Amino acid sequence: MLIIENTTEFALQTRSAVAVGKFDGIHLGHRKLLHKILEQKEKGLTAVVFTFDTSASAFFGGEEKDLSTKEEKRMVFGQMGVDVLIEFPLNQETAATEPEVFVQRYLATQMKTAYLCAGPDISFGRKGAGDKTLLARYEKACDYRLELIEKVQVDGGEVSSTRVRQAVRAGEMEAAARMLGTPYSVSGQVEHGRRLGRTLGMPTANLLPDSNKLLPPNGVYYSSVLLHGVSYRGISNIGCKPTVSRENIMGVETYLYDFDESIYGSQITVQLHAFRRPEEKFENVEALRKQLALDIVAGREFEV
Question: pLDDT of 179-194, one tens digit each?
Fold first, then answer.
């Protein structure tokens, strides 16, 4: 997958099918857009995702935490078969681009758009003045076909990044998974920890999430770990490990079932299936060990 970043000066060489969106969380609605451009790829067009390198809400002073980090988005897009990912720089200059200029310069000329899909609530350009009506108006002049993709309905409401974010913040991982089409996950490199888990006979894999990654409430979660294309059952603690550490550093620590390999430095994805219990500070390490043993037994019995 070709990644175009940190520039507005780019030019695709072939006609393209473009999906435009924020793609925060890559939920079922986003996946519907992606499947549309992949259908067009089978007809000979280049499958292109156009998004921003910074979320508009964060840029304009709104939401600060991301459901998906830049690296996590790239991984999903690449796995799905996207040909080109454009991470368009969002700054004071580009935010002031007139919507008409955006369509004519970027969509028509630089991306050679033949097929364009987006949600019905799309907004772009200066003050968000660009919308589906403007895109439809330029359809013939700019020689592309516009398809507006209706919202996906789950649990009696429209799927949106806002709803997914609410579910994650509440620790409702099952609800988040229904809207995402896959469990909510945290990806990163396995770091060296305090090795306490190994001392207790319960070795764990430790991640230090990106500071902009939205995490669910501190606690223990039933989980799975994706490593080198293989899924392993696990149970994860999200938090600062108050029993053994005074450092206020957020981490994701996961015990993998039936696994005893050194994976330091490996990239893993921890999928969070369901909340088990809140994080708590125990009187001593032995009390912690006893609770962890109970957690591990419960996790083995949990049905993924």
Answer: 999 999 999 999 876 5
Confidence class of residue 243 from pLDDT cuts 50, 70 and 90? very low
- The pTM for the full model equals 0.89
CA–CA separation, 166 vs 176, rounded Å? Answer: 9
**Which DSSP symbol is given to 152?**
P
Element (H, E) at 291: helix 285-301
CA angle 41, 160, 167 (to 5 degrees): 130
d(CA 277, CA 222): 10
C-alpha span between 128 and 123 (Å, rounded): 5
Over the stretch 274-293, which tens digit does the pLDDT of each residue have? 999 998 887 788 888 888 88
Per-residue HEC secondary structure of 73-122 comes to: HHHHHHHHCCCEEEEECCCHHHHCCCHHHHHHHHHHHHCCEEEEEECCCC
Nearest-Å Rg of the Cα atoms of the chain is: 22
